[in-house]
Amino acid sequence: MNTPSTEVGRRARKRLQMLEHLANTAARLFESQGYESVTMEQVAEEADVAKRTLYNHFPTKEAALAYWLDAELERDLAHLQDDVAKCKTFRSRVTCVLDASADWCEKHPTYLAAYLRHRLLSVGGSGGDEGRSDGSDIALAWQHLIAAGQLAGELSKAFPADQLATWFHHLYLGALLRWLNVPGLALKKEFQAITKLFVEGAGAKVKVPRSRQ
């Protein structure tokens, strides 16, 4: 006999399976036909679902793209765990993640503008805007790294880790936007700059003159 919790769990699994099926179908179309040319109607037809089903899970094409890219990012972050664990400081750990992100972004520039439009509208919200709540968004990685930095005394505890993670995530997205829109920039250097700003702040360092003996 099924209990209410069992039924809820089954529905959640089915929803997750459908999200992954739809996102992966959309991704195949994006790869084969180009992102801009693919329509939501094509995705529904290729996935063999009603358009209403597709829109219930992903209200926009950008949402489907973001879900797929977040899943790709989650897999990449999982592979980075050993490398991050070897790093001794917050700055080195976050740089490890950012360098990997830069490598990925430089290989997929055609998707980034649409992804960023979607993420900038949803950043800081609670949970996934497509029902995703498995913590795959890179903002959760920032939160874990920041919390560890606070615990080690490297970062201030004046603000909670989740709040700092949201602020850092805005810096991250801003660096990506700047890289996309300003020719000739090196993405890794842009990420180094936001890390320096986050850790050290933007205030001028005033040199105190030595007193004369």
From TrEMBL:
Q: Write down the superkingdom of origin.
A: Bacteria
Q: Which SUPFAM superfamilies match?
A: Homeodomain-like (SSF46689), Tetracyclin repressor-like, C-terminal domain (SSF48498)
Q: HTH tetR-type domain: which residues?
A: 16-76
UniProt keyword Transcription present: yes
Question: In the record, what terms sit under GO molecular function?
Answer: DNA-binding transcription factor activity; transcription cis-regulatory region binding
Task: Report keywords, A-Z.
Answer: DNA-binding, Repressor, Transcription, Transcription regulation
Q: Which Pfam families match?
A: TetR_N
Matches recorded under InterPro entries: DNA-bd_HTH_TetR-type_CS, Homeodomain-like_sf, HTH-type_TetR-like_transc_reg, HTH_TetR, Tet_transcr_reg_TetR-rel_C_sf
Where along the sequence lies the DNA-binding region?
A: 39-58
Q: What is this protein called?
A: TetR/AcrR family transcriptional regulator
State the species of origin. Answer: Trinickia fusca
